[in-house]
Amino acid sequence: MADTPLSRTFSTCWRLCTGLGVPAQRSLAGKIYWRVHPKAGDYPELKNILECPEQGIVSRQRGLFGSKSDFVYHQRLVVKRYNVRKPSDAVLDLIRPSKATFAFRKARLLEDIGIPVAAAIAAGDAPRRGLVQHCYLIMERVPGAQTYRPFFTAGGDADHARTLGTLIGRVHGNGLRHRDLRCENLLEDDQGKTWFIDMEGIRVQLLPRPDRVLRDLRALYRNFSRFQASPATGVLAMFWRHYLREQPRGSRRQFRAARRQIFGK
Questions:
Q1: pTM beyond 0.70
Q2: Which DSSP state fits 168?
Q3: Residue 5 pLDDT > 70
């Protein structure tokens, strides 16, 4: 199949829905079956976490339903426990992969297309208790992480705009939408590397038309107004230049037209 936006979208959707092409080892620890990243051996502390992922979690959940998720932070890893928010979710969980499974697949996919994300090291589903089933995602912890708030507060700068344009453009160029491009989901580590987090909200863009795809950037623009700042001179031009380089060559004119339609620039 030719490498077109539609073929990329089909390939992405197939991987996310089936898990095929997402290498993972299978492991049983305690009563939980885990899917484990091939690089899990870099984390010897993982064995104890797999055996008792609940250790250290302070639950915000009251009763069976309500809380979206709970976290516990270890020195190099983070455990996220997904809770069942409402009865309809519990019913759907009987027939669909768990939220942790989807998050694991998405993180692995993003690694493959060159997006710097906190690697999903393991995902597992606890034994079901009636309709309620907790699931867990274990991720790398970004060292010395700071959010992108200083970038937006100061109006941005060319280097970071170039990085964001390339990375977000690559996400969109592979038929995906982030859907929550808040500064809190954009991190910079102690070496100056940019990381994306909270990527489980990503969706496949089934109809990857430029005018649909670019709506994903509205949240990014709103970060400036949140802090009562305006983009500095040249920042948006730098972002768009590198963003467009990641789009299929035959679609770039349509992206430029859609940008003017949505953002007036």
A1: yes
A2: H
A3: no
